[in-house]
Amino acid sequence: MFRKILFILIVTLSALSSTVYAQKAPDPNGGNTGTVVDLDSTAGKIIDSVAKAKDTTVAGVSASVSKLANAVSTLANGDGHNKISINFVWLMMGGFLVFFMQAGFALVETGLTRAKNVAHTMAMNLFIYPAGVVGFFVSGFAIMFGGLGALGTLGGFDGLNHEVTVNLFGHTFGLFGAKGFCMNGVYDVGVLGFFVFQVVFMDATATIPTGAMAERWKFASFALSGLFVGGLIYPIYGNWVWGGGWLSQLGANFGLGHGHVDFAGSSVVHMAGGVLALVGAKMIGPRLGKYNKDGSINAIPGHNIPMAVLGALVLAFGWFGFNAGSTLAGTDLRLSVVAFNTLIASCMGAAASTLWIWFVRGNRPDVTMMVNGLLAGLVAITAPCAFVSPLGAVAIGLISGLIVVEVTLVVDRKLKIDDPVGAVAVHGANGLWGILALGLFADGTYGDGLNGVKGGVRGLFYGDGGQFVAEFIGGVVNFVWFAAAGWILFKLLDKIAGNRVNPEVELYGLDLHEMGLDGYAGVKMDKNAETPLSR
Questions:
Q1: What's the alpha-carbon Rg for the chain, to the nearest Å?
Q2: Of 410, 372, 493, 448, which is closest to residue 111 (Cα–Cα)?
């Protein structure tokens, strides 16, 4: 009996061993690369030794079976390690792409403002990165993700296990995390990789107000804002949506779809930054010369349109990391759907904004509206990108292009809020549209188990009105939280450092007074400083 078992075992292992070691020659087309032996050479050696075993006694068979078990265990461990490694690489690549978006923000904002403030605007887009990261490191990460639980796709570390909660109406509501301040107690490869990916999302939120408040915001006040946004304001709402907090549990607790869902940040990142930009721009007031006493508007064009266009393309490139990277797993093949939806929605946004400003609101195409239409489509698709079909992404992008034009005009003409780059329309309005679009167009093909709810995420058009309600609630909470927190923040900053530069500084340009040098060497500005004069 044992000899028959051993014979079958040896034949099987011999075949496996020959498969493992068959290809030793060069492999130009890659078809024979990636076999079992590439997982772990030790396992291959064990299989080979078992296949060549000649001891047919009970002890010999037992030893061979034990070796086989070790080989299978080794191969399984290697396979699991490789899967997690693929997820790590994808996560890091996504984070690096999102970081590169900071260059895009800097180029867009600087190009759409005036030459006399180029060093100041660039400096804000540079320094928001370290300021925000410090805040996120000290407290932001812990508040946002300290109660997240196990990082399943990144090795399963479960040390982020302290969520501060309150019990109301028989349900538990997560308020904020409390594990990982200064990254203490979470020294794990998965957690640190997750931090790198998430901190650049925070940075995008913190940098959005710099565009709306450009050309009159004191650098000291701005720098302090980065600490507060990264360390407290952004992470609290982020916890409610992405950290296991109460908005994410509206489905499990009250049957509202899968709770407030935001795949990559239409509300958590973009609407948040847009609301802060709206409040900040309103409180700091318009640039000198923007509005006349009779309410008429003076256009203040940007000084470098090629720079703005290049910045938009950099942002569009980085956005593939923003959205597709949010699968948090290279082994989640839905990332191709996410990437496609991101691409098509951005193009539809740019096309719609261009045609709308050309034939409905003006008489020629506007390059700045092309830029903002492209970005509007990206913002709007960021929440629903994983949950909608290609046609759904097309519809979302087209509507975003109309929204960005109309909201820009309302903010500028009706509300009399001076937003040099259109941040409120691009990020605020289309961030809201993005989460509402998810509540409408999610088709149920993805998201099974998300936020503890079975089945895919379905929007109103696919039979789940509760999902739309959850998205709407998340949008209202977003506006209330960031408007209130932003008002308090800018009031506090005005007391500490003052928000606005003196009129004389604003007229001459912020570069020399605030930064100590001209952004463009070899030129100087006149008093009105609309255009540079040669020295």
A1: 28
A2: 372
Look at residues 218, 212, 210, 235 and name the one whose alpha carbon lies nearest to residue 133: 235
| Nearest in space to 230 (alpha carbons), one of 208, 257, 203, 196 | 203
Q: What is the pLDDT of residues 144-190, one digit of tens each?
A: 999 999 999 999 999 999 999 999 989 999 999 999 999 999 999 99
482 and 490 Cβ atoms separated by less than 8 Å: no
DSSP character at residue 137: I
Cα separation, 497 vs 221, in Å, equals: 6
Distance of alpha carbon 481 from its chain centroid, rounded?
20
- The answer to whether the beta carbons of residues 211 and 286 sit under 8 Å apart is no
Instruction: Return the structure tokens found at 86.
Output: 């693929």
CA distances from 230 to 136, 410, 486 (A): 5, 30, 13
pTM across the whole model: 0.88
Q: How far is CA 231 from CA 227, 238, 242, 431, 441, in A?
A: 6, 11, 16, 22, 34
- Residue 154 sits at the vertex; the CA angle it makes with 148 and 158, to the nearest 5 degrees, is 40
Tokens encoding 400: 């975003």
Q: Token pair 């000198």 is at which residue?
A: 288
Chain center to CA of 48: 48
Q: Where are the alpha helices (DSSP H) in 112-213?
A: 118-135, 141-145, 189-212
Q: What is the pLDDT of residues 67-108, one digit of tens each?
A: 767 766 766 666 777 888 999 999 999 999 999 999 999 999
Burial of residue 352 (CB within 10 Å: 0-12, 13-18, 19+) is buried
Low-confidence ranges of the chain (pLDDT < 70): 1-61, 64-65, 68, 71-72, 74-78, 522-535
What is the structure's pLDDT at 532? 45
At the fourth CATH level, which superfamily is domain 87-515? Ammonium transporter AmtB like domains (1.10.3430.10)
> What separation in angstroms does the CA of 366 have from each of 297, 356, 371, 409?
18, 10, 9, 14
Q: Is 214 helix (H, G, I), strand (E, B) or coil?
A: coil
Q: What are the sequence ranges of the domains in the chain?
A: 2-80, 87-515
